[in-house]
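Listing S7. Sequence submitted for prediction.
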Amino acid sequence: MADFYNKLAALSKDKKMIMATIIAGEDRLLAAKAIWSEGSYIEQDERAAAVWIKISDKLNDIKKPTLIKADDTLVFAESTGGNPNLIICGGGHISIPVVKIGKMLDFQVTVIDDRLAFASPERFPEANQVLCEDFSKALASIPDSTANYYVIVTRGHRYDQTCLREIIERPHAYIGMIGSKSRVGLVKDAMIEDGVAKELVDTVHTPIGLKIGAETPEEIAVSIMAELIQEKNQKIAWGGMSKEIMSAILDKGLADTPKALVTIVKRLGSAPRQAGTKMLVLPTGDCIGTIGGGCVEAEVRRQALITLDDGKCRSLTVDMTGKDAEDEGMVCGGIVDVFVELIK
């Protein structure tokens, strides 16, 4: 199974990919996986070839984690985008709260500015990386991904134009640009004059952020991140395979250590995390990632440790709606179905 994740990590992230996992059916096929992209499978467990053929016509239209029935087999299908990447062009006062909120929302955050005073780890301690160099050079170093969200908040329209020109024709999930109507108009006109299609230019969110009457940097940051959330969830709901989980699975030092991967495959009501959310459980009981914390996570972790002992995949349902759940402190409400699989 670890070999599958090595192949997954090596795949290009500049196009939509769907990961399918068998979660119910014949025991020998449980946890079998396939990757679907642009109309065909680019990786698949041949043991389940008949299943993949049956569900192939349903994979192109998937926009969020979905359960697919194929006779007596149940398949969980999700995008493999992992944590979305938030790239902030400009290290000014608005960027500080944008970084903080971005990290709260599990974005991998990069800040770019060409001024040392505005691009330092001390100024942005929560950011995953801070790049102090020319905007074009820094943006050129950012790996392409359809999970890239670009926020352009530089100090002037010529820098805005530099950033937009660098990224607008590359894979991305979102581009937003701050500024007055006249400022963003100049930048957009320049893009069109440079030969960028008007239809593509019109996809740039300007003015950036939802219209909530924001005035302070913190309020503007909330409006920006709210728009990113809206855009992200209206398009493709990315799976929960975070970089931290992938790193642990691929860590050569843990190659001989069995690991249990927990995935929420269905959510009803107001459960704390979405379908597709993942958590990796190690034999020590340590967890990488979270599926919501509290009693829900404690019970699932216990079941994952059993999987590490007996090597068997298992499905379980955690109900947080009844009196027993209330007594146990599971006050969120809702029901989650979870699939636990062994990775070794």
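Caption to Listing S7: primary sequence and predicted structure tokens for the chain studied. Confidence is low (pLDDT under 50) at residues 323-331. Residues 217-234 form the longest helix (18 residues).
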